[in-house]
From TrEMBL:
Record lineage: Eukaryota, Viridiplantae, Streptophyta, Embryophyta, Tracheophyta
Domain RmlD-like substrate binding: residue ranges: 61-233
SUPFAM superfamilies given in the database record: NAD(P)-binding Rossmann-fold domains (SSF51735)
InterPro entries recorded: dTDP_dehydrorham_reduct (IPR005913), NAD(P)-bd_dom_sf (IPR036291), RmlD-like-bd (IPR029903)
Matches recorded under Gene3D superfamilies: NAD(P)-binding Rossmann-like Domain
Pfam family, one: RmlD_sub_bind
Entry superkingdom: Eukaryota
Protein's name in the database: RmlD-like substrate binding domain-containing protein
Length: 346
């Protein structure tokens, strides 16, 4: 496969895009150079937990959870492409002894968790499997965080931003997004309820970096977990602006956040919002000129789903300050998703 490199802004000394054969076709993942750790004493509140990986001369070794999942698989691909040593954990998250065994064997500098229950085919599954959802999303995640804390390891936890809903203080279309310190206000689905619970508890762990992902998208339009793939296959869609996460751009940033030992809660979406109709119009313009879709209201949607869905805008000021080159959601959609897949002549 031909290698393609495009220069980008060198705001943090990581200079290239690279097309890698281990990654999905035509996905120009942003690859970040290995970052030497800044001692936590430089800025304890910013750098967070002084992990085992904080030694500048110690090589990176990531322990990943979520091997069979979508994001977990992509993280492994990125580690291979960047030359980062990694392994997947085999232990069950709720089984403390198995996690301790994984860590003893892997001897990681950081742990990244993309495991958990989202439900198949969607979060409605969680409504009828509440114990299984608690076991994975609450007990499992907390156990992993606690083991990592005991072992002096930073945990990057891929969470969700679907714990908020537009309200009077954050009206739809206002541009006022929910901040990292805001209290979740959406408990319409059991999935979101468990995620809000565990996020609140994880705030007590100074070794955890919580990344709020929303409506994840990649340029692999054949993947059924891809938000774009989902809505192009729906008979009808609602049309509401939302914050979304372009994984092609943001997953490499998550690795850089681990290297910097960043902790705390982060809204992990691209800046701004985009509506369902705007995404589908881009799909029509770039991919399939014959594509069409139908809308329906939230009231009509409620008749065909079990649990309500979250709609919100997240404030990304904190993430944008750390990574100034981060593109807005619409710019990122064009650059990372629709341009690489373009089939319609401009």
């Amino acid at each position: 496969m031909q290698m393609m490199c495009v220069p980008i802004q060198r705001t943090h000394s990581y200079p290239l895009y690279i097309h890698h054969p281990n990654l999905a076709p035509k996905i120009p993942f942003l690859l970040l150079k290995s970052h030497r750790f800044i001692p936590s004493s430089v800025s304890a509140s910013h750098m967070g937990f002084p992990t085992n990986g904080a030694e500048a001369d110690k090589p990176l070794k990531f322990l990943l959870y979520g091997k069979t999942g979508w994001i977990g698989g992509l993280l492994g691909d990125l580690c291979r492409a960047q030359g980062i040593h990694f392994s997947y954990g085999s232990g069950r998250l709720e089984n403390r002894a198995s996690l301790e065994a994984d860590i003893a064997e892997a001897k990681p500098t950081h742990v990244l968790n993309a495991a958990g229950v989202t439900g198949r085919p969607n979060v409605d599954w969680c409504e009828s499997h509440k114990v299984e959802t608690i076991r994975a999303n609450v007990v499992g995640t907390l156990t992993l965080a606690d083991v990592c804390r005991q072992k002096g390891l930073l945990l990057v936890n891929f969470a969700t931003g679907c714990i908020f809903e537009y309200d009077k203080d954050h009206p739809l279309g206002s541009g006022i997004g929910f901040k990292e310190e805001d209290t979740p206000n959406f408990t319409g689905s059991f999935y979101s309820k468990t995620k809000a619970m565990v996020e609140d508890l994880l705030r007590n762990y100074d070794n955890v970096c919580t990344l709020r992902v929303r409506m994840p998208i990649t340029s692999d339009l054949s993947n059924p977990r891809n938000f774009i793939t989902k809505i192009t296959r729906y008979e009808k869609v609602v049309d509401i602006p939302n914050s979304m996460t372009i994984l092609d751009e943001l997953l490499p940033i998550s690795l850089e956040m681990a290297k910097r030992n960043l902790t705390g809660v982060w809204n992990f979406t691209n800046p701004g919002v985009v509506s369902h109709n705007e995404v589908l119009q881009m799909y029509k313009d770039y991919i399939d000129p014959n594509f069409s879709w139908k809308n329906f209201t939230l009231e009509e949607q409620a008749k065909v789903i079990v649990a309500p869905r979250s709609n919100n805008e997240l404030d990304t000021t904190k993430l944008k300050n750390e990574f100034p080159e981060l593109l807005s959601i619409k710019e990122s959609l064009v650059k990372y998703v629709f341009k690489p897949n373009q089939k319609v002549n401009a």
